Amino acid sequence: MGRPGKVKGFIDSVIGKAIVVGIEVFARKSNVSLEDSLAELKELSHAAGIETVYTISQRKNRIEAGTYLGSGKIEEIKALAARYGADILLVDDELSGIQIRNLESILDMEIIDRTSLILDIFANRAKSKEGKLQVELARLRYEKPRIVGGSTQLSKQAGGIGSRGLGEKKLELDRRTIDKRIRDVERSIEALKKQREVQKSKRKKSHLQTVALIGYTNAGKSTLMNTFLRVNNPLKSKHESPVADMLFATLDPFHRKVKLKDNLEFILTDTVGFVNKLPHTLVDAFMSTLEEVKDADLLLYVVDVSNEEYEHQLKVTKNVVKELGAQEIPYIIVQNKKDRLNSKELLEITDPLEMTVPISALTGDGLDHLISEIEGKIMKDYKVVDLIIPFESGSMANYILENTKVVEHKYLDDGLHVRAYLNGHDINRYNLFLV
Fold it and tell me: Which residue positions does the secretion signal occupy (predicted)?
């Protein structure tokens, strides 16, 4: 049994019961607690259609090279699997090919590490051709080092490259086959990137400013996007599919035009959410989906203010923006899920030197304040101008009334007298009518 739309041959079974296990190594520093990491892994498993029935956490000096877990913990998992009917072991780390093979042999369970789980979710959620290729590239890079003496995560997958019980010559052939496919995929991605640049240029020609949502995958970005569309585009949003409210609902950048009550328009972009312990093989794919951020006029750092890792997640968000070379773009910190904190708790974690707006994307509380701040940031490139548009230029007068922020207007004998906020493009377009 598999999920609708599942990529054939990636993870053998997606629907099943899983035991979740994670190890905290004393000498290994991490900004994320083991408990939070395991909680996120369970959310990921839910997104993949896997039911988690039991969670095991362990703190120890080192990870076992051959089996990841010690013999005692393995025996415990055997007993738990029998008790709960679990057929999957979800591991909160990236495993080697040998570790996967040994655990499968001992436990007679499917072993899915954090990386392969995320790759599977990415594979099922990617919609664009480039997104699918980026995931395939990440998968190939993940699988290549896991071709191990006759048995490999890759070789046991229907539709995958290779098969069980092959000799070294065949394994080397598998590696060369993967290398060739990697090169082919990389070339295809480069070609699609050029097409994406053309699409960006077309959006820029609309002369609308772009506001991009950025942050962790469970911070509420997609909920905020849907709330914006519902509140500001009520009629249009009825005919548009909402952004799904789930982990990695957005892999490919998602664009929608938002029109505020005073006719101010901008393009709102939702981007892929961050995740803790992002697999190394997915970094390139992840960053490529965030390229749109560099072209935004305003960034909204959406952070779950109720999360204990709030400060860490905000720091990571800023670091990613810096890695993208977008740190000079104006931003607003959107403290989402304010309804889960009282005013004192909110005040304690708010930096008075930062532009922060507490909201609840779910209820819409604080949205008016956020819209006001967005307006203020966007309007800095607009100027108040006075125009007299003659009656024979009725279509141009209608454009001003319907698509710009109008301060006042009146009809006199010589045409429409209007005072409005215009951007540089519209000022040039209406140059003949300037007073």
Answer: none
